[in-house]
Design goal:
five-stranded antiparallel β-sheet, six-stranded mixed β-sheet
Length: 266
């Protein structure tokens, strides 16, 4: 009797050693994308000054998308909830915010992380792409849900049809937080915050940003089975990724996405 196929992994590594990963389900929805690993090199810090995509070793990974750094739009990220439009602006630094949206093909968008989540959201039924940077502050402020609602209200997206990918980021195995993080989280989400934390001692909890993000996306209407999360912890897998918590600042991964490529029916 034929054996059932093994479940397909939500991600694939590329290169030897791997310089980046991608999500087949997102590629099938018409989104060309990548998330760099430490083997692609670190991106230099972004300042609030106008400028092009910061140069660096990640240029080689970008070549896999067929784009150059000068074509990429990105943000000066501040752990807030501002959602900016890339369209109508030249490539490079679009402004200060933590989510970026385009309705144009071949308009690459980038988010930089080193433990926080990078999100890629796409509506396969229309030309619409967004990326976002979400840490604990963005979680407290409800950025994942805010972004879905903005895509629906401003761009006509159908939340249930959105495809979402979560980048490698610090997992619930390693992300210990204290009262200054948990108290505002409990105030913002009094009915669900306990689902997202595990007590580890007096005044200490492990925070599950993956579950919090998935719950906020689902509450905004995203179908849970359309959320792709490799569940790769940047702190555990320092052989592959940079971790601010484990290694300190200065090292950053890039998540880059643009519309274009093979499409499938919704």
């Amino acid at each position: 009797m034929p054996q059932p196929d093994a479940p397909r992994s939500p991600f694939e590594f590329h290169g030897e050693p791997p310089t980046h990963l991608s999500y087949p389900g997102l590629g099938a929805a018409g989104v060309r994308h990548l998330v760099t690993t430490r083997h692609a090199g670190s991106l230099p810090p972004v300042t609030a000054a106008e400028g092009p995509f910061p140069p660096g070793p990640a240029a080689a990974a970008l070549a896999a998308l067929g784009v150059e750094g000068r074509e990429v739009s990105f943000l000066y990220q501040v752990h807030g909830t501002a959602i900016l439009a890339a369209d109508g602006r030249p490539p490079g630094l679009v402004g200060t915010g933590d989510a970026l949206v385009t309705e144009r093909a071949r308009r690459p968008l980038a988010i930089f992380t080193a433990d926080c989540l990078a999100l890629i959201l796409a509506d396969p039924a229309r030309p619409l792409l967004a990326v976002a940077h979400v840490g604990w502050r963005g979680t407290v402020k409800g950025l994942p849900g805010r972004l879905v609602r903005a895509l629906a209200e401003r761009h006509g997206a159908a939340p249930a049809a959105l495809r979402v990918a979560v980048s490698p980021s610090i997992g619930p195995c390693c992300y210990e937080v204290d009262e200054p993080v948990v108290a505002p989280l409990a105030r913002a989400f009094p009915h669900v915050w306990e689902r997202w934390v595990t007590p580890t001692g007096p005044g200490k909890w492990r925070l599950d940003l993956w579950r919090a993000t998935a719950d906020q996306l689902a509450e905004a209407g995203v179908a849970p089975d359309r959320i792709l999360n490799p569940r790769l912890c940047t702190s555990c897998r320092r052989d592959l990724f940079f971790s601010y918590r484990a290694e300190g600042g200065g090292q950053r991964l890039a998540t880059v996405a643009m519309l274009g490529g093979p499409r499938v029916a919704v």
